[in-house]
Amino acid sequence: MHTSASHLSDAQWRKSRYSGAQGNCVELAAVSTGGSAGVAVRNSRFPDEPALLLTRSQLATLIAEVKAGGFDDLLEGA
């Protein structure tokens, strides 16, 4: 699910401490969606564009898969 990041006016966006100063970062914010706790994800270069809304469980699964190398094939040729 997604929504415009500008609709998440109370969101406290943050990015990784490993992010550089070039403005091409992924930012995350804790949000409440439909009464459930979740996480919004946006591109810092386009802060008012759509934000991806994930449940905490979905975010945990994504992070685990990244750590396990499940997306390493996407880095080839990058």
UniProtKB/TrEMBL annotation:
<dbReference type="InterPro" id="IPR007278">
    <property type="entry name" value="DUF397"/>
</dbReference>
<dbReference type="Pfam" id="PF04149">
    <property type="entry name" value="DUF397"/>
</dbReference>
<feature type="domain" description="DUF397">
    <location>
        <begin position="11"/>
        <end position="67"/>
    </location>
</feature>
<protein>
    <submittedName>
        <fullName>DUF397 domain-containing protein</fullName>
    </submittedName>
</protein>
